[in-house]
Amino acid sequence: MTAELAAWSDFNVAIVGAAAALAGLVIVAASVNIREVIQATTVTARLGAGIVALVVALSVGAIGLIPDLDAVGYGVIILVLTLIAAVFQGHAARVIVRTPPPGDDAPPTVTKAVIGFVPIAAYALAGCALLIGHPAGLYAAAGAALLTIASALLVSWIALVEVLR
After folding, report:
1. Does the CA dihedral 115-117-119-121 come out positive or negative?
2. Cα–Cα distance between 96 and 101 in angstroms, integer?
3. What angle is formed at CA 81 by the lines to CA 94 and CA 91, rounded to 5 degrees?
4. How far is the C-alpha of 151 from the C-alpha of 143, rounded, in Å?
5. Which residue of 48, 63, 92, 150 has the lowest C-beta tally within 10 Å?
6. pLDDT, tens digit, 9 for 90 and up, residues 11-51
7. How many domains, the chain?
8. Is the distance from CB of 62 to CB of 20 less than 8 angstroms?
9. pLDDT over 60 at 1, yes or no
10. Rounded (10°) CA dihedral 133, 13, 149, 97
């Protein structure tokens, strides 16, 4: 499995760089309007979950670069990081569901609460596949990283726009 994981090194390097840059940009963007962000509990929870998701993508990519890492070890690490992200996303989902939407044209609360779980589910699939030694877990991890970036960007953009309304 280590040879298969080594084949993903360029992808992992790219994900690490992208996730780190995006997490930094989200933090800087939020800090510009930090008072408004802190006052909006749903925004704070969503941004927190988005940043944690990006840190998971960064961590999974970086750990995938460790020489001689075996599939089971990589799968266990992915599952632990997935659990951490799920805790933050679960908190964000609870806050979103408990807070009434600001207007009649607001998207359904359930959609807002569930969207952050999509990359987490993909990482869970990747971790489980790697635990049983299936190389498709590497593809699932790659898909999860891309989903994480897309989801975090979407959630962050929406959250930052909501702050300015």
Report:
1. negative
2. 8
3. 10
4. 12
5. 150
6. 999 999 999 999 998 888 888 878 888 888 888 888 899 99
7. 1
8. no
9. no
10. 60
**Secondary element (H or E) of residue 40:** none
**Which residue range forms the structural domain that includes residue 107?**
2-163
Longest dimension (CA), the chain: 54
Question: For residue 103, what are its two tokens?
Answer: 């207007």
CA neighbor of 61 nearest in space, from 149, 147, 161, 142: 142
Q: How far apart are the first and last CA of the chain?
A: 50
The span from the CA of 76 to the CA of 5, in Å, is 15
Which pLDDT score, from 0 to 100, does residue 126 have? 97
CA nearest neighbour of 76 among 15, 36, 127: 127
Cβ atoms of 5 and 61 within 8 Å: the answer is no
| Closest by Cα among 30, 42, 55, 159 to 92 | 42
Distance CA 150, CA 73 (A): 27
